Amino acid sequence: MSIQAVQHMRRMRGGAQSHLMRCSDGHYYVVKFQNNPQHIRVLVNDWLGTRVAEMIGLPVSVAVIVSPGPPAPEP
Length: 75
Description:
By secondary structure, this protein is α+β, with helices and mostly antiparallel strands.
């Protein structure tokens, strides 16, 4: 399933510089980007940590890959 960001809602607090985005499936996601200032491996660490937690039965949020939406039109 491909999920695409359709609207930027707001920046979230914290060092990861994540953003709240409305996506093509109608849900809202907190999204982190590849150019994360904390470290280049932050996205992989979060993804793997979530998968391990799911495998051992812990309740975790769903992790999905969100593609950026189309660029905004120039004024």
